[in-house]
Amino acid sequence: MDKHLVIAIDGPSGAGKSSLARRAAARFGIIYVDTGAIYRCVGLAAWRLGIDTKDAEAVAALLPSLDIRMVYSEAGEQRMYLGGEDVSSDIRLPEISICASNVSAHAAVRAFLLEMQRKMAREHSVIMDGRDIGTVVLPDAELKIYLTASAEARAQRRMLELQAKGIDSPFEEVLRDIELRDWQDSHRAEAPLRRADDAVLLDTTDYDFDESFALLCGIIRERFGLAE
Ligand code: DC
To answer: In the chain, N or C: fewer CB atoms in 10 Å?
Structure first.
């Protein structure tokens, strides 16, 4: 790929951002950056130390000691390392989701992780997903997409994902967790989740994965003038 592609995808949890972005990255030969995984590392570190993740000062005090690294395999898979330990699986535990959401509300955490994310987009063609990529991290991204779906559709998908990993959670519980995180992520003072004015809206409530992927690829090809 000769062009430097920078694609920002934002949206609520469970909208399919990561699976769609990962597949699009493979399709267009660029890097997929999952920024939620970085916040999850901070959440996991705090949780392991028994720090109250809602306590801004306590979490801020932890930051200087954190060594968080994103490492990409040949196949483009992102692995997360915390202090040299591969925590890629641990950060996906349901209890870490809410810790990640809690720590992500703190200004100090967002400032700490900002440059790490911008550096990736400067050095590589990327499709980066998160909550504030188009609004704060990469406001000049050539393509911004706001990917969403109804809370029920997202809960249903998340439940199936968890089941595939052998984690059985009732639908109501998954839905409640999604609604709580939606509320937290979009009502926080720091970089709340919102659609950038120039973001293309992609609502996948009524589409399956392949249909959503086809729509996403169409948007990317059109914006960057890429051939089919
Ligand atoms: O995408 P995810 O569910 O893995 O993200 C975990 C949490 O991190 C989510 O609740 C919100 C937060 N987050 C954020 O505030 N900004 C980002 N760019 C990515 C994630």
So the answer is: C
